[in-house]
């Protein structure tokens, strides 16, 4: 190759290729921004579209587009995912943060923020650390504890803590809320986005999710409620009196998850909260 195409030409080819493979063409822009090391909101990105790529840049871009064409998530290709306006490192050992989980953070900040000034917050199954680190950065007076059973995930979360400037977050290895119960420690706020996809449904997921994202972060057992049962059993022993718990759920699981916690905490207020698309997405428990 003696000369690489201009940016807009490479984008057109990549967009057509991705569409032919049943993928969204906007991924072509995301990958190009990574090659050029520019954010999409950066006005320089649009100015660069008339410029010619270097041969090295074009080969890098082609490789990234081909990887996505084979089904690999864009976030794993670039190694980053945007969450709450920040760039989090991600890889195949952690779930790609979703927009719904940003809504979960908003609900925690809104509802718990009215009750607490310096709460102790536990993020159960932290993965990349998206929830824990965002809460720590948005609520500097909070004490944030982040739990995960995966050593690989904990490494990613710790790196994100260093990069984003949230060194005070304490990372604890363990299964769900078990470390809190074992230490007889209670927290003011518990947040969790546990695996909630039923095993049968996991097998039917789009390949871009099923074949690349970690199954242990998605598969919630036969009916998808395995980890909610575990949390419901532990919550009376780990949530402080008057504390709050915030859970992300599958859109058809609201009544079932709410009932689990009502049975374990009969005096608590348990509410199902909808997301921006008016689907049941969160359960909020006030003890």
From TrEMBL:
Domain Methyltransferase small: 117-201
CDD domains (UniProt xref): AdoMet_MTases (cd02440)
GO BP terms, alphabetized: methylation
Stored InterPro entries: DNA_methylase_N6_adenine_CS, HemK-like, N5-glutamine_MTase, PrmC_N, RF_methyltr_PrmC, SAM-dependent_MTases_sf, Small_mtfrase_dom
Alphabetical keyword list: Methyltransferase, S-adenosyl-L-methionine, Transferase
Record's function text: Methylates the class 1 translation termination release factors RF1/PrfA and RF2/PrfB on the glutamine residue of the universally conserved GGQ motif.
Catalytic activity: L-glutaminyl-[peptide chain release factor] + S-adenosyl-L-methionine = N(5)-methyl-L-glutaminyl-[peptide chain release factor] + S-adenosyl-L-homocysteine + H(+)
Organism: Natribacillus halophilus
Residues binding S-adenosyl-L-methionine: 125-129, 148, 193
UniProt-listed PANTHER family: HEMK METHYLTRANSFERASE, MTRF1L RELEASE FACTOR GLUTAMINE METHYLTRANSFERASE
Origin superkingdom: Bacteria
PROSITE patterns, A to Z: N6_MTASE
Family assignment from sequence similarity: Belongs to the protein N5-glutamine methyltransferase family. PrmC subfamily.
NCBIfam families documented for this protein: hemK_fam, RF_mod_PrmC
Location of the Release factor glutamine methyltransferase N-terminal domain: 9-79
HAMAP family (UniProt xref): RF_methyltr_PrmC (MF_02126)
Residues that coordinate or bind substrate: 193-196
Matches recorded under Pfam families: MTS, PrmC_N
SUPFAM superfamilies, per database record: S-adenosyl-L-methionine-dependent methyltransferases
EC number(s) given by UniProt: 2.1.1.297
Entry protein name: Release factor glutamine methyltransferase
One annotated GO molecular function: nucleic acid binding
